[in-house]
Design a protein that fits this description.
Blueprint (H helix, E strand, L loop, with lengths): L1 E10 L2 E11 L4 E5 L6 H8 L7 E6 L2 E2 L4 H7 E4 L11 H11 L4 H14 L15 H12 L6 E5 L7 H16 L3 E5 L3 H7 L2 E6 L2 E7 H8 L3 E7 L4 H13 L3 E7 L2 E6 L5 H10 L4 E7 L3 H8 L4 H4 L2
Parallel strand pairs: 3-8, 3-9, 6-7, 7-8
Antiparallel strand pairs: 1-2, 1-4, 4-5, 9-10, 11-13, 11-14, 12-13
Helix pairs in contact: 3-4, 8-11
């Protein structure tokens, strides 16, 4: 649904994007991750037709962003990392105004506005002036604004910025609901645990270059060095745990063994055969209750992918 190839953008001497390339499949929630100044907002603004690229191509739904911005705007709903509101308008008037801006027929504007207010759980605030809404409510209202023309793609730049924990949960559930409605969603955020739970695909950008892209579990687990397995024993007493620890440490391909309270976690090398280890544990009568992989951590992947290197520092 979104395809970017070799995107470059320079602001004066600063190279903001340096050959950015990635795709977002239809119907996925794509987490766009990177440090401040990495190029996330610049990329999103190019996709939203708000800034031209110096070179490279970007298409949304097969439509080239640079060649037909009008058609792209019909496909895209954009929620920036800041929100502006018209203080004296009510919530429903605010959405009606933007529906008019997007060419929604006059006879449909109020119905569209009311339906969107219900979707973002602001139906009881439709006659409330927007300047009196809480930050979380304003964020949801601005998301509704991005939906007035029923776009197929949503570009959300830091949608949970500044929200309290409850409001973040509400925003996360709303994004999930939009995916169920068939939207393709690109979301940029610094709240990595929430992105990890929400997103199906992820892309890491650092200093204007993509350093990893793909399905969430594949990218996260590939980046975090060493695959980990969790082993729970029926008997978690110290003696049984120590005995299992010694056996595991001697098994070929096991790189590290950690006793973590009531279970054991091991780090294994590339190509390690899980079934072989499980068979040996059972054969040696180790009372295994559970044996499962441990998912990598998105925050750890972020730190590994964005740490300075000599090559990057010399650019």
């Amino acid at each position: 649904m979104i395809a970017i190839d070799g995107l470059r953008k320079r602001f004066g001497r600063q190279l903001a994007l340096d050959g950015v390339t990635f795709t977002v499949p239809r119907g996925e929630i794509f987490g766009f991750v990177g440090p401040n100044g990495a190029g996330k907002t610049t990329t999103i603004r190019i996709l939203a037709t708000l800034a031209p690229a110096d070179s490279g191509t970007a298409t949304i739904g097969g439509v080239p962003v640079g060649d037909d911005p009008g058609a792209v705007r019909e496909l895209v709903g954009y929620m920036p990392d800041f929100f502006g509101v018209y203080d004296r308008l009510t919530a429903v008037e605010y959405l009606e105004f933007y529906a008019a801006c997007h060419g929604v027929d006059r006879s449909r504007r109020r119905r569209v506005a009311l339906e969107l207010l219900e979707l973002v759980d602001l139906g009881d605030r439709r006659e409330t002036q927007v300047d009196t809404l809480s930050r979380g409510m304003k964020q949801r209202l601005c998301l509704a604004r991005a939906l007035v023309h029923d776009p197929r793609v949503l570009l959300l730049d830091e949608p949970a910025s500044g929200l309290d924990p409850r409001a973040r949960v509400e925003m996360r559930e709303l994004v999930r609901e939009l995916r169920r409605m068939g939207k393709t969603i690109l979301v940029s955020s610094h709240i990595l645990p929430e992105l990890e739970e929400l997103c199906t695909w992820v892309g890491f950008i650092d200093r204007g270059q993509m350093v990893a892209v793909g399905p969430m579990d594949q990218v996260r687990d590939r980046v975090v060095a060493g695959r980990r397995l969790r082993i729970d024993l029926v008997d978690a007493e110290e003696g049984a745990m120590r005995s299992a620890e010694e056996m595991l440490a001697e098994h070929p391909g096991v790189l590290a063994v950690d006793l973590l309270g009531d279970h054991i976690e091991i780090t294994v090398g590339e190509g390690f055969e899980d079934a072989g280890l499980l068979a040996e544990l059972i054969g040696r009568k180790v009372p295994v209750r559970a044996f499962s992989p441990v998912a990598g951590d998105l925050s750890e992947a972020f730190m590994r992918l964005t740490e300075p290197t000599e090559e990057r520092l010399s650019r």
